[in-house]
Amino acid sequence: MSEQARGADSRTLARWLPLAGWLEHYDRQSFGRDLLAAVIVSVMLVPQALAYALLAGLPAQVGLYASMLPLVLYALFGTSSTLAVGPVAIISLMTASAIAGMTGVDGAALSTPEMLGAALLLALVSGALLVTMGLLRLGALVNFISHPVISGFMTASGILIIASQLGPLSGLSLKGGNLIEMGQSLLALPTGIGIHLPTLTIGLGCWAGLILARRHLKNGVMALGLSETTAGMCCKTTPIIAVIASSLLAWGLNLGDQNAEHSMALVGAVPAGLPVISLPSFVSHDWSGLLMSALLISVVGFVESLALAQTLAARRRQRIDPDKELIALGLSNMGAGVSGGMPVSGGLSRSVVNFDAGAATPLAGAFTALGILLASLLLTDWLAWLPRTTLAAIIIVATTSLIDIAAIKRTFRYSRGDGTALTITLIVTLLHGVESGIMAGVVISLGLYLKRTSQPHSALVGRVSGTEHFRNVERHAVETDPELAILRIDESLYFANARYLEDTVLALTADRPSLRHLVLACQAVNLIDASALESLEVINERMTAAGVKLHLSEVKGPVMDRLKCSDLPENLGGEIYLSTFDAWQALSIHGSHCGQACARDGVSQTAALNG
Amino acid sequence: MSEQARGADSRTLARWLPLAGWLEHYDRQSFGRDLLAAVIVSVMLVPQALAYALLAGLPAQVGLYASMLPLVLYALFGTSSTLAVGPVAIISLMTASAIAGMTGVDGAALSTPEMLGAALLLALVSGALLVTMGLLRLGALVNFISHPVISGFMTASGILIIASQLGPLSGLSLKGGNLIEMGQSLLALPTGIGIHLPTLTIGLGCWAGLILARRHLKNGVMALGLSETTAGMCCKTTPIIAVIASSLLAWGLNLGDQNAEHSMALVGAVPAGLPVISLPSFVSHDWSGLLMSALLISVVGFVESLALAQTLAARRRQRIDPDKELIALGLSNMGAGVSGGMPVSGGLSRSVVNFDAGAATPLAGAFTALGILLASLLLTDWLAWLPRTTLAAIIIVATTSLIDIAAIKRTFRYSRGDGTALTITLIVTLLHGVESGIMAGVVISLGLYLKRTSQPHSALVGRVSGTEHFRNVERHAVETDPELAILRIDESLYFANARYLEDTVLALTADRPSLRHLVLACQAVNLIDASALESLEVINERMTAAGVKLHLSEVKGPVMDRLKCSDLPENLGGEIYLSTFDAWQALSIHGSHCGQACARDGVSQTAALNG
């Protein structure tokens, strides 16, 4: 096989298996970088995996299982060299909410086999949806979730996650998927059952330690002579220190003994060994509810994951293929669904650490999976002693970065509509849960966009003296003509604003009895649909009846192509001009008054150029 | 009270009660015209009212009741002088479908008191929704039903109505709200129960008579020396002749006798007298289903009614106020709901006859109500003998005009998207009923619009030699510059296409290593939302990193106002030019090369003009 043929062959393979693209250049240096990154990410991932499983209302080991096969699958199919896939906070919160809906059991209660089955089915279906979207090349669909909606959703999710962890942190038993339910469960607590001081003490201790480490450890380590990047990575591994210290404390004081005075909730027995590969056995009674939950989980997971992967890739001038990412993330989730896991996505903090640690290829992810595998074979006896309050503290610290209150003000300052979408998403998420929140956000942002386009801005324009440029008569000092009105329409013309256009034009002509020519300047009209075409015909008829000639100018190629399939150009009272300046020259008293012949030239020129 | 004060006073009153606007000028001539129109419309309305009540699966007299109070209310509150309100075909079909959903009883069965109660509640709720929309000034909402969707819906409804009348016409018992259900009910008929020949004979006889009258009677009457308009109105009253003739036949041959050989379905006992004013007693078990049905009925009724009123008003150079029409039609429906009626709307054929007969004011409608009142006091004994097959023939002839198959081809020729929306609406309505059809149409047309705007057209433009005009390099012979790319973006920038813009721009710069300046020509950008702003910031960063300066030109006033609230103008690698020609002059090798100073001028000019 020639060199060229082999190159072409591996490129074809790489289209479906990105692995094929980079594996042939894999060398010892890349191996070393990947291995180092994997060790650091594994140390971060163990406590996070346990914590997010508990956040989803599932047994702790589910988090570990979700950090093995999915990572290997992403390494094979993913296009990002640094994205660290696994359990993440928001997806775990959404999983908890979806499981509560599917099983009728609230996420904060002790997990049942039914809930575990529901989580597996959810991961499998989410994954299948993502793969399907990828095969259908529907990656662009996620664009319909706007940035303000994502921002509002993240902030609200952060607040909900923190609120949900206040229970485990303090020993209180709180339940619910939104602030209202949590408040109700707080009020419904039997008198006498209050905050458990030993639990709260350890939890707050861990929290304070993690916060202090985040703020000051980096400078301290840098003072020891390490580089800033290395120091930063050291700080990211402090949660494992909290885990080890509090587990030792729980073991030393025998805090797990139910009869002891200071007994508290520990992670408890984690079965050692590997997950069993099998299909989920849970049978849903509400498939449409399951599908909706799975769709929202997959879309939110993908949006987050893709944004993260693209940001990191841009720093290294690499490219991310959204459709391939859909397939990779989908297969990861399907993998989680058949190997005892839970829905997964790309994790922010772990991916950044992976990037900083120099991960060279997706193999770093596969090595991380190996690390988690070792942990679940060797460390389970120790993890059983881990107090739940420590995990709550870790989640709270990790989640604080999701909350961005300043974004509300910033967005409102730029645009009231975007600010409204953000705020409504935020409020609905807080008061009615994550699924309602994201749906409300999508609906409200689409609604606001449609409302805006249904009442288009339009402006009477005049000529900027000495140029061929035309601007709004109310904003600029421009030349005008009482017999000629040039109306610039600042929107595509489609069914939602067709009638609005009729009203605008008729009001304009009613106000100007001296009018003889009306030019619709169409440089901002990117579409004229069948409804708008009918409206233009109506306008043309009424203008003709009123003795006013209707002209068009600057009709774009694709729009003109369509108009030629209709009777409008033929029936039009006036002409179609290539540019507004041509119309001005032909029709205005300031123009050159070359008259009808010149206007006809304009039309034939347009026809020739567009043809 | 001075003349002026009285004028101002009556104008204020007229804002809420259009009646006050025309009543003071009412004279004997208007009275005569209104009375004549009312007589003709009443003669048309009696058989139609009976027929549409049966079409809705309700007792015949419901149609008469729906033609009294609602007409009086419209006369008081409506703004159209010629719209004839009452039972109409499509609304009756939708009512049948909604009643079947609310009661579980199929519309074609014998009507029960429960069904009547459901119809009353439906009219009341539809009316209340319309009034609410009117008070909230939501008249523009109906614009979201595009013309192709209305066209497809009307054609499909026409086919469904005709199909539903084939049963009564032939004596077969067919049920169902769509073609599939009707086909199933045809196949499920017990063997031996077939077409009833005497019924079919009378039905086809009426049908043939009506068709012939429609085709030839007008010329015949005109030959007698009557004017074309009068002849046209005569033809519209032929249904009453069919009614009288077939009733006499049924009475003469005693066709209603169950024991007689040729017995057939007659309208039967119609209670003489006036409807009782009372609130509907039906209690719905499915309020969200009822609300959805009522919403669709009110929206479809309003869209049809408004389009009709506006068309007729335009011929007399009168104006229709959509929000007042909402209130008037809403009150009419509420009136129907409390007076034993059914949902009503503006009827096409009757309104046209009303217009042609010279109706001068809405009082014509009130006089029509009086005519129907007289009919229901005096004619009920005679109407009992009317064969149902006659009414089926009348409906079929009246409905044929709704079907417009040519529109499908015409719409497809103009635009594939619009054609698709029309076809899907048509097919879903035929196969799944009227409510699903109209909803599918709205969703599909919004979806197609969003899909289109999410993948915006953009074009590299160059200068049309000797002008300040810039056009697509692929369509026109224009000047270009290898160091300067001017990209015209043909769409507002918002969340759904923000990422698409990033991809387009990055692909463009990747292909052109010699590029030093990129100008985004924004004359077609009517909105930059918060998501798109972030994308522009990302693009600006990447361009700067790649050594390319990003410029903007022709940013419109409202868009510029917003951008000034962001950091983009400050962080932009390049400048913001008033016109694309300014950018060309400053940046192109063909330009005047006045350089940086000139570019700065452009910005300050923009700032000054927009400020």
TrEMBL record, chains A, B:
Q: Which GO terms describe its cellular component?
A: membrane
**Keyword check for Membrane:** yes
Q: What is any one GO biological process for this UniProt entry?
A: transmembrane transport
Q: Which residues form a coiled coil?
A: none
Q: Which residues cross the membrane?
A: 35-54, 60-77, 84-103, 115-136, 148-167, 187-212, 233-253, 290-314, 357-379, 391-408, 420-450
The record places domain STAS at 474-587
Which keywords appear in this protein's UniProt record, sorted alphabetically? Membrane, Transmembrane, Transmembrane helix
Give the matching Pfam families. Answer: STAS (PF01740), Sulfate_transp (PF00916)
What the entry lists under InterPro entries is as follows: SLC26A/SulP_dom, SLC26A/SulP_fam, STAS_dom, STAS_dom_sf
Q: How does it sit in the membrane?
A: Multi-pass membrane protein
Q: What is its main location?
A: membrane
Compartments (UniProt record)? Membrane
Q: Which NCBIfam families match?
A: sulP
Q: Which PANTHER family match?
A: SULFATE TRANSPORTER (PTHR11814)
Protein name per Swiss-Prot or TrEMBL = Sulfate permease
